Amino acid sequence: MFVARNFLESLALILDYALVIYMWLIIARAVLSWVNPDPRNPIVRFLYQVTEPLLSFLRRRLPLMAGGLDLSPLVVLAAILFLRHFLVQTLVDLARTLG
Length: 99
Fold this sequence. Notes:
mainly alpha, 2 strands, 81% helix, single chain
């Protein structure tokens, strides 16, 4: 059973790291939206390529514009926080019960 426990703990850790990285990418994208970044900059292009699929999906599904303010990054951040506190913690607790 220790193999399953270690697998679940590792999966939880990797998922947590991925969610934290994506959270910071969303925050960087939101901060960049306040200024006028050069669209040819490789960092700006990377941020847009990584975050735009999820943000555009939310913009199409939910009317999240409030007075010209795009609230889709806030929804994504809330979902990431939920996943970190619910899914990751559930995987860790499940791994502990196997040990």
